[in-house]
Structure formats: structure tokens, C-alpha cells
Design brief:
With 320 residues, this protein is of the alpha+beta class. The chain has 3 domains: 120 residues, no CATH class; 61 residues, no CATH class; 104 residues, no CATH class. It is built from 14 helices and 9 strands. Strands 1-9-8-7-6 form a 5-stranded antiparallel β-sheet, with no helix packed on it. A hairpin with a 2-residue loop joins strand 3 and strand 4. Helix 1 packs across helix 4, helix 9 runs antiparallel to helix 10 and helix 10 packs antiparallel against helix 12. The radius of gyration is 23 Å and the shape is elongated. The N and C termini lie far apart (59 Å). The model has no long low-confidence stretch (mean pLDDT 93).
């Protein structure tokens, strides 16, 4: 496969420096696969560099050297094989040529790390993150805003544990950009929307579709989270889970649910649920629950469904 003219120009201009980078990589890792590096340059990096050439042609050579350095790191760590990474370089990086041109290694490295972090969460939606980020690229004019918007969209793509810190940080995002990133109706009061999202994880706002349930967790032997069917306690309006010797703090909201590791001391300090009940058929249907002997516990507007016969759980908004 032939490379584009900008990539050929950049490789020729910085041949010595790039060859030295590859030699160092092979010295560190004798098994370093130069064929995979070439494939990544042709299939992923090439499109980003073509976009840089249209934006800032005088930056072709330094951007080539810097982007190849990032590519070498990705190939050396095996992360170049991740489909989400290739999609990012092909679909998203070209849209940010105006930021890559002055800071190629920082921008390409940060976005690569971000999509790989999102993709490692089973319930996350990295394809949604990529699409929304690309859609607002023209309105992102500096790397600080890029970081803030990227984190906001990571929350929107399912990383529920980002909700509070991201929404507090997102006050620095211009209103029009925030509305566009989250696909909110024009004229939405961004400050009030943020306050509502901070106050109610399920965002029960007039005009919004009701939030649904998230089903997560499966047996660790099949790549899941829980070694045993989990048990639950409540803490500060949320849920703590115990499965075998491991403990988790469950973060859940309208956009996703993520169980993060927690200390055993947190479990010991948490309260036994006081609102425990057999879920009604309507709630089971809403949560698509099928396991026998379901139990539900609720706290401060959230409800968790679990069973001693399954490693899965479902979490969603408590019915009114």
C-alpha cells in the first residue's frame, strides 16, 4: 500500500531521526515488529498527517517525526492492535489537525490514551465518544478545552464514575460547545443542566426520556467482574458490593454504571439496606431481569436488583 505524499515527504525529511527511533525500539524490544509499525503508519497515521498538511503544510516534517514516535510506543506495547485506536486515528485525529499541528505528540498521545481507557470498560461506548468528539472538533480551539470536552464525553459514553468531577470541571466549557457535545437542544441553560445532573444522577428533567437500567457484571471465569453472586450495602446514596473477598463501589447514572474497587473497610462501615423488597413485574420488565429470586434495594432515587443465583446486577432509577 502506497503512503500519501505528505507522509512520504515527512518520512524523507526526518529519515535519520525516525530510523534512530526504530533502532532504539528494537534495542529495547528485540521482537519489535517493524511490519506492524509500517501497517499502522499506512492505515492510521497517514490520514492524520494528510489533514495536518492541509492545515499547516510547513509542519509536515516535525509532525511526522512526533506522530511516528507515538506510533512506535503503541506498536511496542501492542496497543496498535486495538480496533478503537485505529478508528480514532482514522476518524478523529484528522478532525483535530489544527491542534495536532503545533503539538502532535501531546494531542495524539492524549487522545490515544483516552480512547483505550474508555474501551477497557465493558459497558462503555467508545464509538459514541469518538463520534461526538469528531462532531465538535471545529469548536475546540485549545488543548485545555479538548481535555475537558473529552472527559465530559467519556462520562456521556458510560463512565459513570466521571460524573461529579467532570461536571464540576465542565463549568469551563463554553455553553454552545457543551450543548453541542452532549447533543442538548439549542437554548438549553447549560449551568442549570449541570446543576441538575449533579443533583440527580438519573437526570429526571422535563422533556427528557426516562432513564433506563444498566445490566452489568458476570462471572470472572468468563471475563466478568464478580467471582461470586454479589451482595450489596448502601453508602452515601450509592451502593457498595461484595463478591467473595473483593469489594466494589458502584457508580451509576443515566449514562452508565461502573464498579470500582473499594476497601474492605468501606464495606464494613456501610449500612445494611433498609429498603429491601421483591421487585414488581413492571420493574423486572423495565430492567430486563430474568434470574430467579430477584431482590431489590433502593436508596435516594436509585434501585439495585440482584439475586443469589446470578453474577449479574441491574441498576437504574427508582420508580416514582
Amino acid at each position: 500500500m502506497a503512503v500519501s505524499a505528505p507522509l512520504a515527504e515527512g518520512l524523507a525529511a526526518r529519515r535519520g531521526a525516525i530510523n534512530a527511533q526504530v533502532a532504539q525500539a528494537r534495542l529495547r524490544q528485540p521482537q519489535f515488529d517493524t511490519a506492524r509499525l509500517r501497517a499502522f503508519l499506512e492505515n492510521a497515521l497517514d490520514l492524520a498527517l494528510e489533514a495536518v498538511a492541509r492545515e499547516r503544510p510547513e509542519r509536515i516534517a516535525p509532525c511526522t517525526e512526533a506522530l511516528v514516535r507515538v506510533a512506535i510506543d503503541l506498536v511496542g506495547s501492542g496497543r496498535d492492535a486495538e480496533p478503537e485506536l485505529t478508528a480514532l486515528w482514522r476518524e478523529v485525529l484528522p478532525r483535530f489537525a489544527h491542534l495536532i499541528a503545533p503539538r502532535p505528540q501531546a494531542v495524539a498521545g492524549a487522545l490515544s490514551n483516552a480512547v483505550l481507557e474508555i474501551a477497557r470498560w465493558p459497558a462503555a461506548r467508545p464509538e459514541q465518544w469518538r463520534a461526538r468528539l469528531a462532531a465538535v472538533a471545529d469548536s475546540v480551539q485549545d488543548t485545555t478545552t479538548l481535555r475537558r470536552v473529552g472527559q465530559l464525553l467519556a462520562w456521556r459514553a458510560g463512565l459513570a464514575h466521571f460524573r461529579r468531577p467532570v461536571l464540576e470541571m465542565a463549568a469551563g466549557i463554553p455553553d454552545d460547545l457543551a450543548r453541542a457535545a452532549l447533543d442538548l437542544p439549542p437554548g438549553t441553560d447549560w449551568a442549570r443542566w449541570r446543576e441538575a445532573a449533579l443533583a440527580d444522577p438519573w437526570l429526571r428533567l422535563p422533556g427528557m426520556e426516562p432513564a433506563g437500567f444498566h445490566k452489568l457484571g458476570s462471572f470472572t471465569g468468563f471475563g466478568g467482574v464478580f467471582a461470586q453472586p454479589p451482595k450489596a450495602r448502601v453508602e452515601d446514596g450509592g451502593f457498595l458490593l461484595r463478591s467473595g473477598a473483593r469489594h466494589f463501589r458502584l457508580h451509576a447514572d443515566r449514562y452508565g454504571a461502573t464498579p470500582l474497587p473499594a476497601a474492605a473497610e468501606a464495606w464494613e462501615a456501610a449500612a445494611e439496606p433498609t429498603r429491601k423488597f421483591a421487585p414488581a413485574n413492571a420493574l423486572l420488565q423495565q430492567s430486563s431481569w430474568t434470574a430467579p429470586d430477584p431482590q431489590a434495594i433502593s436508596t435516594q432515587g436509585s434501585v439495585l436488583i440482584l439475586s443469589p443465583w446470578t453474577h449479574a446486577i441491574a441498576v437504574g432509577p427508582e420508580p416514582a
